[in-house]
Amino acid sequence: MKPQTVEKLVWVLVYGGIVLAALGYFVARTDENMGLVMQLLGGVGVAAGVLLIWWRSRMERR
After folding, report:
1. Are 25 and 35 contacting, i.e. CB atoms less than 8 angstroms apart?
2. Above pLDDT 70, what percent of the chain?
């Protein structure tokens, strides 16, 4: 995978995860289970983005 592709994916996962977790926080006021699922999926997205940041730092520079 190209470094540029990884960098784009990092941004999508991190910011998408943050938005999803924030939406889950507000949804939890009316539907606790759905809000929890959204928060967990958002957290997984952020964690995946952080993992890709680490992976990108270990890739060879081209």
Report:
1. yes
2. 98
DSSP designation for 1: -
Q: Is 50 exposed, middle or buried (0-12, 13-18, 19+ CB in 10 A)?
A: middle
- pTM higher than 0.85: yes
CA distances from 37 to 16, 23, 60 (A): 15, 11, 36
Residue pair 13/52 in contact by the 8 Å Cβ criterion: yes
The answer to whether 12 touches 53, Cβ cutoff 8 Å, is: no
Residues 42 and 18 sit within 8 Å (Cβ to Cβ): yes
